[in-house]
Batch of 4 targets.
Target 1
Amino acid sequence: MSLYHSIPTVLNGSIHTVHRIMPFELTTEQPSLLNETHLNDELGALIRITGDLTGKLLIERSEASFSLVGEKMYGHPQEGELLSSFTEELGNMIAGNLATFVSEHDMTIDITTPSVIGGQRTMEGFNRGFLVPLSIEQEYQLSLILMIEEKQKIT
C-alpha cells in the first residue's frame, strides 16, 4: 500500500480508535501538519509503527488531561505511578485497536509496546507529521501526533 493511502488510514484509524476506547464526549479538531520537530508536552505514550507505514504515534498532553481521562474511564483520577501505568495502558489499548482497524483496511503494521515519555522534549527524526487535537470538556485536551518516517515518496 502506498503512503498516499497508508497515512489517512492510520490517521483515521487513530481517531476512530480513540473515540471507541474513551466512553465519553470527545471533540476532534481539524488535523494540521507538523514540521520536522515537535516539542512534547508533559506526558505521553509513544508507539512505534513499522510495516506498510514506518513512524510513530504519540498520544500526549498534560498530566491533568490524562488524569481526567482515567477518572472518566475508571471512576477516579489517576496520580503518581498509577498515572504513568494508566498512560501506558491507554497507549496499549490505542495501539492494539489501531492495528486491528488498519488490518481491516488491507494494511499491515506492527506496533511496539508503548513507551511513557514525560517532561518536555523535542521529537525529531520524522519527515512528515500530523497533529490531531482532541478536546475533553472545554479546558482539557489530548493530542494525537502521527510522525511519518518516509523511506519512499508519496505516490
Note: The radius of gyration is 15 Å.
Target 2
Amino acid sequence: MKKILSKTDRGDIVYMDALLVFFVSILIISFLIGVVPVFMQKQKMDYVTREVLKEAEIRGNTSTDVLNYYDMLIEQVGLEPKSISFDGTDYIPSTKNVQINDTIVLTIKSDFSFFSGWVGNGIDVELVSAMTGRSGVYYK
C-alpha cells in the first residue's frame, strides 16, 4: 500500500535533504582547506629540490655556493625546511666535488602541521623531497 504524503510532509523531506547537502558541503570545504596547504608545501619543496640539484649538477659539487643558492631559494619561496642533505652522493675522496656522470642525491625534509587550530595542535607530518642527478663537470 502506497502512502500519500501531505504537503507539509513533502516540505520536511526537502528541508532535510537541503540540510544534509549543506553539512556535506561544509565537511568537504573544511577538508580541502585543511589538506590543500600540504600539497602546496610539497610542490614548493619539489621546486627548491629540483633547482638546487640543477645547480649542483652544473657546478659539479655541493659546496657553499650551492648551499647559498638553497638559502636564497627557500627565502624566496617562503619555506622553512628542517634539513637538507646530500647523503648518497658519489664524492671524489676528501672533497665536495663530484666527478662527471657520478650521482648527486639531494634530500630536503620539512615538518608540516595541517588542521592546526581545528584538531588541537593539528596533525604533524614530515614531507620529504628527494631527487637524484648526475654531475656535469670533469675533474682531472
Note: The longest helix spans residues 7-59.
Target 3
Amino acid sequence: MRVLVVLPTYQEAENIERTLDLVLASGVRPDVLVVDDSSPDGTGRLVEAVAARYPGRVELLTRAVKDGLGGAYRAGFRRAVDGPHDVVVQMDADGSHPVDALAPMLAAVRSGADLVLGSRYVRGGGLDDDWPLHRRVLSRGGNLYAAALLRLGVRDLTGGFKMWRADLLRSLPVELLDATGYAFQIQTTLAAQRHGAAIVEVPIHFAERQYGESKMSSTIVREAMVAVTRMAIEGPESGRRRRGRAVVVDMPRQEEGRAVADAGSAGGGASQERTGDVVHP
C-alpha cells in the first residue's frame, strides 16, 4: 500500500529536517507532503533542501495564509486524494508522534480498519513524563468533554496522529468539515464514524517536543469545546447520521518509544467490537 504522510508546518525550522529524515526512513516507505503556511523562519526552504535528497518522495505545498490546522489539513487532503496513494497519514512535524507506530497502524489498515488513531489513552499508550501538567489537564479535559457529548466510544479524540484509507477521505465532504485547531481532529473522526467507517485505536507514546514551541493554548481548547458543543447538536455536517464501528486494539506497552507488539496483531481476533462504541478485550 502506498502511504502519504501529510505534515502541516508553521515555524518548524528547528524540527523539520530531523522529522522528515525519520519519517522517510520508516519501514512503511511513505512519501511526504509538507503543507507550510509561509513560515517566516524558512521552514519551506529546508523542506525543499530535503526534497532534493529524496527525489520524488517529498512535496512542498505552500499556502499564502495561515488559517489554522484544519485549513492546512483540508489543503493537504485535497492534494492527497488526487494522487496514487492508498493511505494518508496525519502527523505533527515536531517529533511528538513516534515514527515506529506507523507500522502497527498500517497493519491495522491492512486488517480492515478505515481510520486508525494513534492513541495516548488506551492500554499501552502514554504521555512523556516531561509533558507539563497544564497540558495534561487540557488534553484529558478536552477528551472527556468531547467523549461525553459525542458518545463516539473513542478514547483519544483530540490526537493528531491518524491514518486514513484514501478511499474513506474521498467519500467524506472534507470541505464541509470547517473546524479549526484541535477541533478538526474531533470533527473528522466524528464524520468518519457517522459515515460507517471502522475505527481502530493503536497505542502510542506521545513525546514532548524538543525544539520550538507548542501551539497548544487555553484559547484553542475553549474554541474546540465550543465546536464540540455545536457538533453534538448539529453533527459534523448536515445529512450524515449513520454510525460506524470503533474498536481498541490491545497491544503491549511501547518501550522507549518503540512498538514491541507484533504489527500483524493490530485489529486481530483478540479484540471485540460492537456498533457505535468500544469494547475492551
Note: The two ends are 28 Å apart (CA to CA).
Target 4
Amino acid sequence: MTDTQVRIGADGAAVIDGDPIDVPPGVDPAHVVLQQLALDSAGSGGPIAAAIHDARTEQHLRLQINPDGSTRPLAPGEPLTPPVATPAPTENGSRSSEHDQELHAVHEAGRAHEFTRAAAQADRLLAELTVTHGDRDPATLTTAAVRADLAWMSGDYRYATDLWTYIAEGWAQAAGPTSRPARSSARQAAASWKDVPDNEALVSGKSLLAMLTAIAPSPETNATVLAVRRRISLLAPA
C-alpha cells in the first residue's frame, strides 16, 4: 500500500497527495490534516498510512490513521494493523461503533465481489444515516462514497456518476467548494461519467456539469468542465 503523502510548509500551508488543504486562520494545520486523513480512512473502510513532513519543525513521521480518528506511529515499512476495538460507554458511541462494523461488512462484501449484497447493505445504512443525521452529514457522505464505489465496481457508471455528483455537492455545502472532499468527489464524478454509455449520459451529464461549474476553479477554462460540456453538446439533439 502506498502511503498518503502529506507536507505542511513553513508557512503552515498543508498539502495532501498534491491537493492543497484549506486551513482556517488560527487553526493548527496538523489538526486539519489529521481530520481530513480520518475522513479518508473512514471512506476506505480501514486504516491508512500517511508519511508526514512538517517543515515548520523539520519533523518527518509516519502514522497509521484509523476511521475513528485515532493514530499510532509506524516505522518505515511497517504494515498497518487493525485498530483495537474498545467498548463505547454512550449510546452515540455505541451507534458509531455499530456503523463502523456495518460499513466494514459492506467493504468485505464488495471485496468478495458480492456486489448485490454489498449494495443492499450500503443502501440500508445510507437510508438510516440520511434519516438520523441528514443528507449532508459527513457520516452520510462517507457512506454514500462507499456506495458510489460499489456502483462503479459493478459497472453501473451512471449511478456512480449521480452519487459522486451528489457527494461533491454535499461536501461543497458542508466543507466549502474548494475543500479536498468536494474536489476529490467532483473528480470521481467526472471520471465515472466518461464510462456512461452515450444513450444514458445526457441527463447525468447536465447535473455533473452544473456541479463542476460551481466547484471547479476558473470553470470557463477548466479542462474537465470543457470536456464535459463538449460531450454534452455532441449528445444533445440538434
Note: Residues 1 and 49 are 8 Å apart (CA to CA).
